[in-house]
Amino acid sequence: MAAGNSLAKALKTVRKARGLSQEAFSDVSSRTYMSTLERDLKSPTLHKLTELCEVMEIHPLTLLTLAFAGDSPRKADELLAQVRQELDLIAQIDVETHQKKR
Predict the structure, then answer these.
(1) How many CB atoms are located within 10 Å of the residue 10 CB?
(2) Which site in 4, 14, 29, 80 is 20 to 30 Å from 40, CA atoms measured?
(3) How far apart are alpha carbons 69 and 10 in whole angstroms?
(4) Are residues 38 and 86 in the same domain?
(5) The Cα angle at residue 80 between residues 58 and 85, in degrees rounded to 5
(6) CB of 3 within 8 A of CB of 68?
(7) Using one digit for the tens of pLDDT, what is the confidence trace for 18-31?
(8) How many domains does the chain have?
(9) Quick check: pTM over 0.90?
(10) Helix-helix angle 5-17:46-56, to 10 degrees
């Protein structure tokens, strides 16, 4: 399930697809830091990932989906279906837990 180097690849792919240079992130990050992220030498915090995604005008989950699914639209669909199923299960358990507390 590890994304590892895939997050670095996804970040670079989206940045280039958006036509952005590493310098375009200067309000939230240095070019050097962007380079280390794209070479998988460092991993961003969730807060930093959110800031980077704001510059690219995508939702952080889009970037994470690309990191886990790679270039495969089918794998992305399967991953998103799994996430939906897990969220539904968590919501169901949460409702049942609250009902038992009453």
Answers:
(1) 22
(2) 80
(3) 10
(4) no
(5) 135
(6) yes
(7) 999 999 999 999 99
(8) 2
(9) no
(10) 20
